[in-house]
Design goal:
The chain has about 45 residues and is α+β, with helices and mostly antiparallel strands. About 50% of the residues lie in helices and about 15% in strands. The protein has 2 helices and 2 strands; from the N terminus they run ββαα. A two-stranded antiparallel ribbon has the order 1-2. The chain is globular and about 30 Å long. It starts with a strand and ends with a helix. One of its GO terms (molecular function) is ATP binding. InterPro entries: ATP-cone_dom (IPR005144).
């Protein structure tokens, strides 16, 4: 399970859906939003 540290220090499970939703709200196409989420997930490392 991947976890991310939020700005306030909390740890939260990585949510691909949140990344996609945020990209869509920013005006990205569904295809681009999916690609961004995949790239971010691939770039994360455990630890």
């Amino acid at each position: 399970m991947l976890r991310v540290r939020k700005r306030d220090g909390r740890l939260e499970e990585f949510s691909r859906a949140k990344i996609v939703r945020t990209c869509l709200r920013a005006g990205a196409s569904k295809k681009i939003a999916e690609k961004v989420a995949e790239e971010l997930k691939r770039g994360y490392t455990m630890g």
